[in-house]
Amino acid sequence: MSSTAHIPNFPECDHRLVQGLHHLSDRELVQLFQHHGEAGRYFTAIFCRYSPMVYSLIRHSARSPVQAEYLFALTWRHILHELGGVECPEAVAGEGPSAFTLQNWLINITALCINQAVVPEVESIHYSLEQATPPFWCYVEQALDRLPAVERLVAVMALTFRWSENRIAAYLQAEGETLTAAEVRQKLGLAFQHLEAALPEDIRQIYLGDRPLRPEPLPDDLNDLLDVPDLEGAGLDEINLVGAGGDLGNEWAN
Asked: How buried is residue 67: exposed, middle or buried, by Cβ count under 10 Å (0-12/13-18/19+)?
């Protein structure tokens, strides 16, 4: 294995909304993040500043690139959850090496995730950095949580598992939701409208620009999809948009 991890390129780091924050200190970014919960640019700027360090630490500890990418996303999701409670005081002259810095805090959080996160086997992971970098993934998950259960499940099965409208309808019928394929198509359109509306405005600008958030056409042939086992036994509230299905608590060792 190479001693140097290849750091992926993250296009959001070149966006004007993120570049406009480059002059801010770590403390200023954290405070802006904490005071403006409706905005996503401040977390994205922190991600762009420290993603090379976090990715390098994770890549050297993961067994495969796929698991490294998934753990990378889980780590930044954990950082997003914890960042609201971080106290990031101003540096004081004469402070020693033990003084708080955001970089050291991120290193500790990353080490915690490396040691405690339960990463699934490669074949169970549906996350890809090329499809959604961690900030977008995190905010889409938050937006997804605000959708009605059926809309959320339809969006997940279309995006993550690429199920056809007929198969989605059949699964929902087995769960007690009597929807036709045509109604699934309608629900999917509504789900994406609501999902886009629930995203922070600056996140939409950074990641979508002028493009609407819309699903690609679903396959019509069910034969190619009959082996997908990921939803076996899953309820309407147990599905992630991308990644391996399950609740957050299942991803951490006790």
From this structure: buried
By mean pLDDT, which of 36-45, 130-139, 210-219 is the weakest?
A: 210-219
pTM (2 decimals)? Answer: 0.81
d(CA 233, CA 5): 38
Paired strand residues for 84: none
8, 72 Cβ separation under 8 angstroms? no
Do the Cβ atoms of 127 and 67 come closer than 8 Å? no
Instruction: Please list the residues that pair with 117 across neighbouring strands.
Output: 252
Name the nearest CA neighbour of 143 among 40, 43, 243. 40
pLDDT in tens, 35-82: 999 999 999 999 999 999 999 999 988 889 999 999 999 999 999 999
Measure the N-to-C terminal CA separation of the chain; round to a whole number of Å: 30
